Hints:
Blueprint: E1 6-7, E2 9-13, H1 34-47, E3 51-53, H2 74-84, E4 89-95, H3 101-115, E5 119-124, H4 129-133, H5 143-162, E6 166-169, E7 174-178, E8 189-192, H6 197-206, E9 209-213, H7 218-233, E10 240-249, H8 253-265, H9 269-280, H10 289-299, E11 309-311, H11 313-327, E12 331-335, H12 341-353, E13 359-360, H13 362-375
Parallel strand pairs: 1-13, 2-3, 2-12, 3-4, 4-5, 5-8, 8-9, 9-10, 10-11, 10-12
Antiparallel strand pairs: 6-7
Helix pairs in contact: 1-2, 1-12, 2-3, 3-5, 5-6, 6-7, 9-10, 11-12, 12-13
Amino acid sequence: MAGSARTLELGVFIPVGNGGWITSTNSPQLPATYEYNKQVTLLAEKLGLDFALSMAKWRGYGGETNHWDVTLESITTMAGLAEATQRIKIWGTVHMMIFPPAIVAKMSATLDQISGGRFGLNLVSGSNPYDLSQMGLWKDLNHGQRYDLGEEWIKVVRRLWTEDRVDHKGTYFELNDCMSYPKPSRHPTIICAGQSDRGFRFTVENCDVAFFWGSDDPASIKRALRAKEIAREMNKPDFKTNALVTLIPGRTDEEAQARLDHYNAGVDKIALATQAVEYSTDVSVTINQAAQNFLKQNETFSAVLPGTMAGSPETLAKRLAYLVNEGDIDSVTLIVPDFIGDLETVGREVTPLLRKYGIETFAASKAASVEEEAAR
């Protein structure tokens, strides 16, 4: 895009599930511990990343890697990280099916105090029946009904953040003279990963940011532009989008590709098959983009998510910039194999190269200041 530089926010999808987002015996076997995730988040803050996000997952997929059999709970993890950090924004994930709105309203207000206003929510409408039904908490709703529930849920939460007492009798929730204090100092940033037109409309109407899988392929760019198109149709031209991107860096393109090939050579087919079976039982599987990505991963025996970008810092910067500029992206959430070494490579080497393509990040400014300090 010509003209003034585009400002891009960067964040990290911290690995609260063992193994991170690569399903392979050959990939870094990341521990799902608070200490490791604190190390990752503190590094992200040091590198100048803008936010850290954690997923909510309740059941793993087994296999040789015991993939995601161990996971940290999202909200309590982010409470700890809010206390451990100073600047970076802290976003936790909640399933609206299982967390009553009054509970989340108070949790959010508490986290607002801990973080000094840096807390945000990632809302999930529901997609994996096995994940929640093991606890007896899955609601057998179709795609549209889940967003109906979501709309009622978020409206109740926002009322509890602003009103003294709330009475509500809806389809999914009932509150009787409900009080919720303290109130948050500001309304937490709310993101949602709905990627269908229904999902985008829910997100534009009720949230601040649309969150979706991203790559530099035409389908990803079309999806990103569709979110902005719907936002304009709904008279919200300033609505923001966030792309989830997997990067595998190497000193050269060949080295990065060799890493990817090595991960795929050790793909955990049992874990992928289990994941596919679970998502395929969703009545909305054909509409659910996350489910479709996981099914494709199983069909191709890929250890990484569809759209993963592998390459040198120069190649990654060029491909990431293409996605951001062509898809009109406002922020990017990063997944990498090694959340220490690889995250440092992206922060120190990839982000400065984005400037060549008209993209400014706070991380690039931090990298430049580190170089200047080292030169003195």
